[in-house]
Amino acid sequence: MRSPGQRAGLSRPVVVTAARAVLDDGASFSMRAVAGRLGVAPNALYSHVDGRDGLLDAVLDDLLGALPTPDDGDPRAGLVELMTATHELLLAHPRLVPHFVARQGSRGPNAQRLGETMRTCLAAAGVRDRAAQDTAVRVLVVHAIGNAALGAAADGAPLPPEVLRTTYAAGLAWLVDGALGSAAAPERRAPSVG
Question: I need a labelling partner for 128 at 20 to 30 A (CA). Which of 78, 162, 167, 181 fits?
C-alpha cells in the first residue's frame, strides 16, 4: 500500500524544493505551508521527511550541495575559495540565514562534506591536530553565517552586499592566516571548543 506522499506523486527532492521556495519567499515555514505550495495535505509530506525540523535541515543541507570542492593545489586558496562560495550562497538566500543561525548550521551529508573538505585543506596546510581543525572549521563557518546575517537584518537597514563582501574577505583572510599560522607554532595550538 502506498503512503499519502507516494499517492500524491511526491518525492523527497520535490518536497525539499518546495520547502526552499517557501523559505526563499519569506513565508512562514510550516508543513502546512509547504503542503499548500504542493497542493497536497500536510500528512503527505511525512512519507519523505521527519517533520518540520527534519525538512528544515534537509533544505539547509540541500543548499550546501551547490558548493564546489576546491582544487587540490594550494590549501589556503582552497579554504578561501570554499568559504567565499559559502558566504556568496548565504547572501543569495538571505531568508535562509536566520534558519542556519537557529539550527547552528546544517547537519546533513553536504554539510559533512563541507567540513571534511575544510579539514583536508587544513591538514594539507599543516594543521593536523583534529581539535584544532574542528575549531578552525567552526570559526570559519560561524564567520560566514554571522557576516551574511548582517545582510538579512529584520529591523533596520541591512548592510549593503558589497560592504558585507569586503568585510567578510578581510576577516576570512585573518582567520585563515591565523588557523594556518597555528600549525607553524604548535605551542599555540587552537583550543578546542564545544
Answer: 167
